[in-house]
Amino acid sequence: MKTGEIRNEELLPNGKPLDGVRVLAIEQMQALPFATQLLGRLGADVVKVEHPVTGDSGRGSKPAVADVDGNEVGATYLRNNLGKRSISVDLKHPEGVALIKRLVPRFDVVGENFKTGTMERLGLGYSVLSELHPGLIYLSVSGFGNLRPTPYAEWGAYAPIAEAMAGFYEARRQPGERPPFGGAGALGDIGSSLFAAIGTLAALRHRDRTGQGQQVDVAMYDAMVAMADVVPFFWSMGMRDKGPRRGPPGIVNVFQAKDGFFMLQCIRDHQLVALAKAIDRPEWLDDPRLEARADWSTHLDDIVRPAIEGWAADKTMLEACMHLNSRGVACGPCNGAEQVINDVHVQDHDMLIEVPRPDSDEPLLVVGNPIKLSKTADGPVDRWPTLGQHTDQVLRDDAGLADDEIAGLREAGVIR
Questions:
Q1: Are 83 and 389 in contact (CB under 8 A)?
Q2: Which of 45, 56, 108, 189 is catalytic?
Q3: What does the alpha-carbon distance between residue 24 and residue 46 come to, in Å, rounded to a whole number?
Q4: Same domain for 176 and 43
Q5: Does 189 qualify as catalytic in the annotation?
């Protein structure tokens, strides 16, 4: 879907679920910006607070594009800030802090994702802002949280750190090897963002019933422990073997076709029957070496893989998956970027949105909203803001400042 296009235009009169909800986002990088962008796609008005000189640190990431204002904008910023408005305020300046306090009563949600304790030191913590706005939802995303004690309060946290601490990497380490780093995208950031969005929606619903605001606190470490749930759970079930890890009992692995690989999962007895029939290996069903599910993974390389890959050698990975799925075997191709882009499902679900690139005729492809609502239209989606693009507008409309006051703040370096 191209930027600005709307699917199901007949649904437009229904509006969006979060129409009227306003979010003041004091945010950096991705762990909160992905969440506030998602809230924006559901109808919220998101105003982003950035440093007057550097902006969100995501602007400095690589690769980057040259924006319409002549500044470079990094990939992290580009894909996490569509449709937001940007104001530039120096939070280390007393007048900048005063500006934020003046704006807070006009917003339903204030979101921040700084290190634990940072907002309190700036004078913008929940205890201060809730006095100004008792119905405020104050969303905090940090490495290790704000509401419960933690020995890691002073630690920095990026996605790979939270992922590692939650057990993602050690669980896949083979004896004698280093833990294999390789998050699938920014799992720590996006996973934390999803919990942040859910918590915000729950707090808004609670406020609807009670009139009371509250702090929503998401620790990235907590979010990753939740997403790596099988690591401690399987340990509690007695799976503590430190030997070579072959994965769960059954067949869960990638197999080669003539143009690439496909992922296949077969972990139940009836699924093995379906697989054996699908690839014309009926003898598997009477083979004593494959009697138990644990045997299927034990004999992955000497029995299972040669048979599956021999069968798939003259088929594309999509052809192999079509055939196997039609016979009750769950599998899917290991797609590269071009295959994802050209996938009919991805296109029909508007999961990649074309955003015009200022310095090229090639558009940027930013992920769409995976949440589909039967009575709500997708889109429209606006591009990211330039740094401080909406400062004057927001300060006039929401802080009630006159033009000469805004000019004075700009001259003092409080705003861009």
A1: no
A2: 189
A3: 6
A4: yes
A5: yes
86 lies in some domain? yes
Task: Output the six-digit token pair for 202.
Answer: 């729950």
Q: pLDDT category, 5, cuts 50, 70, 90? A: confident
The domain spanning residue 278 has which CATH number?
3.30.1540.10
Q: How far apart are CA 36 and CA 46, in angstroms?
A: 7
Q: What is the mean pLDDT of residues 205-229?
A: 96
User: Count of CB atoms within 10 A of residue 236's CB?
Assistant: 8
Q: Are residues 61 and 169 in the same domain?
A: yes
C-alpha–C-alpha distance, residues 383 and 366, integer Å:
10
HSE-CB at 244 with a 13 A cutoff on CA atoms is 3
- 165: phi > 0 → left, psi -120 to 50 → alpha, else beta; which? alpha
Exposed / middle / buried, residue 282 (Cβ in 10 Å: 0-12, 13-18, 19+): exposed
Residue 154 structure tokens: 């002073």
Mean pLDDT of 68-82: 95
Query: Within this chain, do residues 268 and 211 fall inside the same structural domain, yes or no?
Result: no
pLDDT score at 3:
75
